[in-house]
Amino acid sequence: MNAQQSGKLGEDAACVYLKKKRYAILARNYRKRFGEIDIIAQRKSKIVFVEVKTRSGASYGMPSEAVDYYKQQKIIKTAQSYLLEHRLDGEISFDVIEVLLSGGKVLSVNHIENAFIT
Length: 118
Known about the structure:
- The structure is a single chain.
- By secondary structure, this protein is α+β, with helices and mostly antiparallel strands.
- 30% of the residues lie in helices and 43% in strands.
- It is built from two helices and five strands, in the order αβββαββ.
- Strands 1-2-3-4-5 form a five-stranded mixed β-sheet.
- β3, α2 and β4 form a beta-alpha-beta unit.
- The longest helix has 18 residues.
- The protein starts with a helix and ends with a strand.
């Protein structure tokens, strides 16, 4: 399984997880020239911007550790664009979902709410 396939599997698992937790999926892979957001979801009145990190083990550290300051800034800028484009206002959250795989199967999904702030 290549990185693109495992990434898609991780994003699919994250969407299933969020739907079970009563989030509505508003968009996937929202792209602008300066960044991308894997999943944009809504729960009640809160808009949630989700970065999904998928790994086949923790040998390179926990997946969430890959969401460094530079990546956070790109996500924030892209989120601002989404909010303006869709004329949305209100409570927002930047979350990270870690997905661990083994042999092409999902081992675990870890949702880190409010992983970083603006």
